[in-house]
Amino acid sequence: MVKSIRKSIIMFSLFSLCVCANDQELFLRANQLYESHDYDNALSSYMTMSRHGTAALYNIGNCYFHKNDYARALAYWARAKKGATRQECIAIDRNSDHVLCCLQKQRDGTWVNWLVKIISAINMMIPLIIEQFLFFLCWVLLWYLYGNNRLYKTYFFFLTLLLCILAIALYVRYRDSVSVYGFAVKKTPVLSCPTRDADYLGVIEYADCVKIRESRKEWYKVRYSDNIGWVEADTIQIV
Q1: Which residues of the chain carry a pLDDT beneath 50?
Q2: In this predicted structure, what is the pLDDT of residue 172?
Q3: Which range of residues forms the domain containing residue 64?
Q4: Which residues contact 89 (CB under 8 A, 6 or more apart)?
Q5: Residue that is last in its domain, among 62, 77, 102
Q6: Residue 183's pLDDT is what?
Q7: Which CATH number does the domain housing residue 200 bear?
Q8: What does each C-alpha distance from 209 to 72, 78, 139, 214 come to in angstroms?
Q9: DSSP H or E segment with residue 216
Q10: Same domain (yes/no): 157, 69
Q11: pTM (2 d.p.)
């Protein structure tokens, strides 16, 4: 039994090494094709990889950009951001802003979205375990200071403010981890239910970002602007 388990572990390790080596070879080949402006074959090589890291996802987005498929470029750049460093995220945001400008679209400039963007940037720099520890520490200190004399009121105020900021940061982190978004790869109608003869509710324009609420066979239930409806799955590129 022990020998069998050891043999399985060895076989799995060898398989993993082969997969990693093959992916690295494909990645290097795709990079060469990309540098020579052969975007179709570069994209094919990137897609053949079994696992896609931040660099591969970013380059896939670049290939789609050069092929003028802006919706898929935005989707893959958004995927790359999930594991990117702060500097990489700045570069991705710059690319995305350029594409949105070319499409004559603008990011939502409300103060809420501006605040969420700043908090998301903070989340990238601070590990989750640190945020959780600070959140717990603030609760403990607030409990200790509660009911004390006026000398501690200033500290109480700033701890409460820090606690609120940490709570928002943890909520944004949780929301980003469970929410699924996508970009419309073409102009597509939004229907009241997942059938083609359903009532027409509106339309999603090319490269619009939508939130996926539910999936059912070949359909997605999406939220766009302040509306909710169903679109065909092949019209949405999931992030």
Answers
A1: 1-19
A2: 84
A3: 2-102
A4: 81, 121, 124
A5: 102
A6: 92
A7: 2.30.30.40
A8: 11, 11, 37, 15
A9: strand 209-216
A10: no
A11: 0.75
